Structures are given as C-alpha cells and as structure tokens.
Amino acid sequence: MRALLALSRAIDALSEGVGRIIVWLVLAVSLLSAGNALMRYAFRYSSNAYLEAQWYLFSLIFLLGGAYALKHNAHVRIDLVYGRLSKRTQAWIDLVGTLLFLIPMSLGVIYLSWDWVANAVAIREMSPDVGGLPRWPIKIALPVGFALLALQGLSELIKRLAFLTGHLPDWTPGEEEEVV
C-alpha cells in the first residue's frame, strides 16, 4: 500500500503543478478578454486570433483544471445526502463512482478523441476564420486533460482504498493524507 500511496502523492503533485499553471491562465484570459473588449470598443479593432485565443485559454482552464478540482474536492457534487453520511460510506461511494464512472468515462473520451486529434495534428489544422489560430494544439488538450483527470481519479481511488483498509487513519476529501 505504501507504493500505491507514493504513486498517489506523485499524481497529486502533478495535478497541483498543473493547477498552479491554470491559475495564471485565468489571469491571462481575463486580461486578454479585457484587452480585446477595449480594442474593439475604444479603437474599433478586432481580430479573430484574439477571440480564438480567449476560447483556447478558457478551454485549457477547464480541460486541464479538472484534475486539480478533483484533487481539492472542488468539483460539482450534490451534497444533500452525501454530506450527511459517514466518512466510510462516502469513501465507498467515491470508490464505486470512480471505478464505474470517472475512470471509464475519461478513458472513453481519450479513446474516442484520439483519431480526431491525430488527424488535426497530421494536417496541422488551422482555423477556418481569416486571421485565426492553428486548431491542432488546442485539440491536443482534450485527451491530455482527460488523461490528467483519469490519473487523479486513480489517486483518489488509492486514497479511498487506503482509508477503507486502515492505511490512512483519517481521510477527508480534498485534504492531504499521511501514511500510517
């Protein structure tokens, strides 16, 4: 179990590192959006590249930030019932949900997007809009983001198993764990 918990910590560190980059992307997209609006309304100047860069950055925030949100238990959840359950029951629900839904869905998206992304990269796909940006780099973010999500799902799965088997004395979603 120690080796699995070490793997979990490594995955958590990866998610944390990507999350720290995402924070800067939020600032970048905010500044780009404000600058784009200023240029459009004050100087009557607009560019498809600026507009596409906004949605590329916005896409990166959500695609690459999913694993970070899962690590910190910041994802959307209906806590009406879950929050009233014991930690042990919560761990079982998370374990089953991760095994039956999160990891298979993430792997399915990676599998289904692979040819689409590979084709975009092979032809160096560009935006159909005049002055637009290359599309292939942003398409790579789809399988990468879901791979990060699947990895973080594996980390969460390891932590739930460790808690349920007594290798973690106490566990709360989103908090750092210590090995016994």
TrEMBL record:
Q: How does it sit in the membrane?
A: Multi-pass membrane protein
Alphabetic keyword roster:
Cell inner membrane, Cell membrane, Membrane, Transmembrane, Transmembrane helix, Transport
Q: This protein's superkingdom?
A: Bacteria
Tell me yes or no: is Disulfide bond among this UniProt entry's keywords.
Answer: no
Q: What family is this protein classified in?
A: Belongs to the TRAP transporter small permease family.
What is the native source organism of this protein? Thermus thermophilus (strain ATCC 27634 / DSM 579 / HB8)
The entry's localization annotation reads: Cell inner membrane
Keyword Signal annotated: no
Annotated Tripartite ATP-independent periplasmic transporters DctQ component domain residues:
34-161
Q: Name one GO cellular component term.
A: plasma membrane
Q: TM segments? A: 21-41, 53-70, 91-114, 134-151
Task: Please identify the protein, giving its name as recorded.
Answer: Probable tripartite transporter, small subunit
Q: What is its main location?
A: membrane
